[in-house]
Amino acid sequence: MGMMPNPDVALDEKAIVAEAEKALADIATIRQEVAKVIFGQEKVVENTLLAILSGGHALLVGVPGLAKTKLVTTLGTVLGLDANRIQFTPDLMPSDILGTEVMDQDDTGRRSFRFVKGPVFAQLLMADEINRASPRTQSALLQSMQEYHVTIAGQPYQLPAPFHVLATQNPLEQEGTYPLPEAQLDRFLLQVDVLYPELAAERQILLETTGVSDRRATAVISSERLMEIQKLIRQMPVSDTVVDAILSLVRSARPGHGNASTDKNVAWGPGPRAGQALMLCARARALYEGRLAPSIDDVHALAEPVLEHRMALTFPARAEGMTVRDVIAGLVSDLRK
Question: Domain named ChlI/MoxR AAA lid: which ranges (predicted)?
């Protein structure tokens, strides 16, 4: 009898290339299918998909009515994921997300507790307007995002695999919002800024969505296939030059690391999770763009979604009207020199 191949041994290069080419084709089909329903917003679709392909969670930030919910529903369908949605409100309790114990009584009168799973038990969870909920409820969700299980009355319950949270957040200027704490923002692999659509896309939205029939997306892959692609992405080799670019970008965003404008404008900078996010997402972005290896260009393109929610400006910088995006753009242009 032949030896069983050990799945943990990294595939040889030829096999990885063959696998990557299959993944390229799948990702291209996913892109086409999403584009049937979501018009314009290429950057938003790309970054949200990159977060999922990299196995992480994404925070979608933008005013209401920009099709964020529609995007998440569409991705659930196209990626073959079992999806749930929670609308966050100030009176939402942790048990409304995680689930509750209910007491059952059988014919003999014996009582026992049974756990009724909450909506967090899904492969793709849309957490709508996450910053409207109280900090306690936010942290219940964020803890399950981190630990991939839920503990109720001392008993752990595994969440399904894969498990992805796509949370939407209203701009903080809006009434009745509780900002997410910094440590919890760090749980999101990427922050995706959703802006108003371009004119051509908005025209298409008007024409396509106000008629009788509404276009619907169909499944392109299964959740099992998604997990295979996620595993493949972790096996893709990353060249030393790309690793160096990631390190210099993340480190230059931290005060006290020799970058004068950072020292002046940044109150606190990104931790090691930012580098991990760049390593994963750069590989995913290469495949998304039809390439087999990540490049420095991927690192530059991902700087904003990876770093934006992981750093904060000093008071004087904010008073001058500077934004975190301006600072990141400056760091990227320094790297290009």
Answer: 263-328
